[in-house]
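Fold this sequence, please.
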Amino acid sequence: MEAQLALLLPVWLVALATPGPDTLAVSHAALSGGRRPGLACAAGVATGIAIWAAAALCGLALLFAQAGWLYRIVTLIGAAYLVLLGARMLRAAWNGGDAAAATVAAGGAPAPAKAFRRGLITNLANPKAAALFGSLFAVALSPHPGLVEGATLALAFAGTCLAWYALLAALLARPRDAVAYRRAARGVNALAGAAFLGFGVRLAWAEAR
């Protein structure tokens, strides 16, 4: 197991450090809501990673490879979510409001719960994670890994993900950063909305070609 982790984790850490929708979601949650929403969003992303890793171990990556239409449908649904989220944030920025309140349906849930949900859905919106884990596991694991071996790897990936994004959230939730965000909230929300929309369009375009 140690040898497998030593082989897989460096590749995973490089992928983790590459900015994407997860980074954007955690950053926006920490800047707009503070430490607790930022950490909750990080936990949501990590939960999504655990789900994708477990799904890859159960053969989802192979299913996606054999049923391209299914992968395409999942990808387009995820792209639609990112586009919708970006559009809502842009609209909130245009109206001068706080996108964090405008992009989640009302229901009385506390901000951390909303942030967790956004982190989870943002991560699950990109099925490329299943393909990544599938390729990593195919290289490093036996064709039929045991339950303990698979669970250990999934937890290792989720744990490193949580640590990385929790650190990011803690850094961005500092008081001086919160003050800077309040001064430039409208512009930051507009940039974040445009980025989410761009991620969604790029994801859909990659499947449409």
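Confidence is low (pLDDT under 50) at residues 98-109. The chain has one domain: 2-68+98-184.
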